[in-house]
Fold Transcription termination/antitermination protein NusA.
Amino acid sequence: MLITDIKRVIDQVSREKGIDAEILITTLKEAIVSAARKKIGPRADIEVHYDEKSGDVEVFHFKEVVEEVEYPDSELTLEEGLEFDPECEIGDSLGIRMDTEEFGRIAAQSAKQVIIQKMREAERNAVYENFIHKKGKIINGIVQRFDRGAIIVNLGQAEAVLRPREQMPKESYKRGDRIRAYVLDVLEESKGAQIILSRTHPEFLVELFKTEVPEVAEGIVSIRAAARVPGVRAKIAVSSIDSDVDPVGACVGVKGNRVQNIVQELRGEKIDIVQWSPDVARFVCNALSPAEIARVIIDEDNQSMEVIVNDEYLSIAIGKGGQNVSLACEITGWHLEVTSEEEYSREVKEGYDSLMKLSTVGLPAAELLFKAGYSSFLDIMDAVPEDIAAFLNISVEDAQAMIEEAGRLMKDERGRARNELLKRGSFKKPDTNLDDNAGEGETFDDEDDGRVEESGE
């Protein structure tokens, strides 16, 4: 390929690969300068002019006119300069036109290599630019091959990877199968853009609803939160900006056709669609459906709730392997503890009985303390006197006395526990064969935390 062929190459590459012709022309000029310097010398001042219409290339070697030449590749004598310009003087810079045939093939080959490199870079950039806008969207592809558990998906212009952890459990594909997945990320790397897909991400579920439910796509119905146990169960929380549109009904569709299409895409994954509510207690109740909630106890400081359900709904509220309550925690953002009414009643009774062991606490005071989060005299031990005083409308001194009494009760409880263990012969005595420091923290005394070791009967 000669320099005279460059215009044809530039036009073809620019047209077919979508690379700006200016980039290729700049590449050509740089290649010619590099080739000229290899032939003449590294200090040579080379200028290249390219005529975009004709494709003609002119190369000029600039030299300074000096009295005595020290650097031949960038200087010439006045006598030599007068041959090119009869009016030149010492200090002038002369542009001497070069015969490109001397190094044309070298320059053209260098330009070709750089152009090919630019083509590859442009193709990589084009893939990245085309797919970065699809991040967070669903894309269709064809299974092309498998690589150490990962599925390589052909997207037409590029390949994407569906890693093992992003694949649905018990889901299998063979080469040539069509596949839908969520574009989790598009990474710009030296070898080209890497497109990461997922079929397990909660946002894949959200995007599926956008494709199946027009009200979601139009923004009338919003998906407030989504959580999944991929392939098993999922929950989404929905709301509507239009009072005439039921968000749950819109997502379910007539005879469940909309949600069933999504369930089929997710290979039978059960989907609970729950009504979002600004009232967090109501939202939690909806999230735990179909279990019926008897009451909730809210701890806003720790963003947690104790949820009490009818005894027959306990297993439903918790779900198989705790899935229902776990997903409810994810979509509400609250820590939920589910308890049956029977268990809760027993805990309340035990708490009241424990608080009423304090000589100054009757039933009314026990109710106030229990509602304030003090479920036993053990909680009173760690309380701040001013807080107790405020809850019970008593003096700080009386509150401090109550805390001290709780400490004595605890000490008595530990003593009784120790005596009981000694009677059973299961209390572990310290090993007298060890030195004084050995076994620290293993013996039981009035100052420890009450932990004992049982021999096991």
In short: The two ends are 93 Å apart (CA to CA). Residues 431-457 have pLDDT under 50 and may be disordered. The CA atoms of residues 267 and 395 lie 64 Å apart. The chain has four domains: 3-128, 133-198, 277-355, 365-457.
